[in-house]
Automatic annotation (TrEMBL), chains A, B:
It holds the Pfam family MarR_2. It comes from Jhaorihella thermophila. Coiled coil: none annotated. Keywords: DNA-binding. GO terms for molecular function: DNA binding; DNA-binding transcription factor activity. The keyword Repeat does not apply. PANTHER family: MARR-FAMILY TRANSCRIPTIONAL REGULATOR, TRANSCRIPTIONAL REGULATOR, MARR FAMILY. This is DNA-binding transcriptional regulator, MarR family. Residues 10-143 form the HTH marR-type domain. InterPro entries: HTH_MarR-typ, MarR/SlyA-like, WH-like_DNA-bd_sf, WH_DNA-bd_sf. GO terms for biological process: response to stress.
DNA sequence: GGGTAATAGTTGTTTTTGTAACCAACAATA
DNA sequence: TATTGTTGGTTACAAAAACAACTATTACCC
């Protein structure tokens, strides 16, 4: 298609990053959605608990930069499904400790395996060095550098 | 924080890409939102018309992979603001040609300039070679490779 | 030509998200 | 020990996205 203006939208980072993020999330999303009815924030919270064990909503927020209302709602959904338990902190009764139940652990382990395979497939398209550089650059762009 | 399980969430591409995409979109979003009250899909449609000139909703969809209902509503909003005009195709009366008005062009040029500056700032963090590689990899991941 | 399928785009309904206001528990200060 | 400010987390309401069903027009094909 003939161009009227030469701005390069396809190389504009916010656009390109979004397209890559969406496309690369799609197949994984299908799994956690169809298999467990989870939302994006749900699996993220689940993974945080699976990886780090018992933690509070606040700690999850600090680590992931997910907004606290989203976390609050994800925790509700996961608790309804009995994937996690909530226990008040006796020293500070405002916060509560979240922890996966055995059922939650099982879901985590299943999805974790799928995530690993999936990431390996994405990664296999590039060389080791390219992949390392990509991660560094993305972390920097994400403000996690 | 001590880990219970060693899955590397921060390097899981779908997660990392999303974080980078969100973070890198934020500052630009503030501009098109506060200055013109536009939504994400709105500026994308606007940019397509600014770059390629007159085109149909379908063509925009093919090029951007934005869903047709999102495009339909973005076009409505842009038309209400008199940023574009819609004219039926006489050969195929199902489709209509979209084209920016002078007002729409002005908004496009303003945002285009900001996008260029913004992208330049993001890009300045890396070397020329790193940037080239990043684009290639992202396009591949986005299925635009 | 008449019937069926395909296509461009729209609309309606339900989910999710964003934003701000809110509660309850704690901290700090006077 | 009142007072004021913070903090962890929730809720309410408005805005936006997802999904499916729909209209109108064109294409196919017997």
């Amino acid at each position: 298609m003939e161009k009227k203006d030469d701005f390069d939208l396809e190389n504009f980072l916010p656009f390109l990053l979004n397209q890559a993020a969406e496309e690369s999330s799609l197949a994984f999303q299908k799994v956690y959605k169809s298999r467990y009815g989870l939302l994006r924030t749900d699996w993220r919270v689940l993974f945080h608990l699976g990886i780090y064990g018992r933690m509070t909503a606040k700690e999850i927020g600090q680590r992931s930069k997910i907004h606290k209302t989203k976390i609050s709602r994800a925790v509700q959904r996961l608790a309804e499904r009995r994937y996690l338990t909530r226990t008040r902190d006796e020293n500070d009764r405002r916060s509560e400790h979240l922890e996966l139940t055995p059922a939650g652990e099982a879901v985590y382990r299943d999805l974790r395996g799928i995530a690993e395979d999936y990431d390996a497939r994405l990664t296999a398209q590039f060389t080791r060095g390219e992949n390392a550089l990509l991660r560094v650059m993305l972390r920097r762009l994400a403000g996690m550098g």
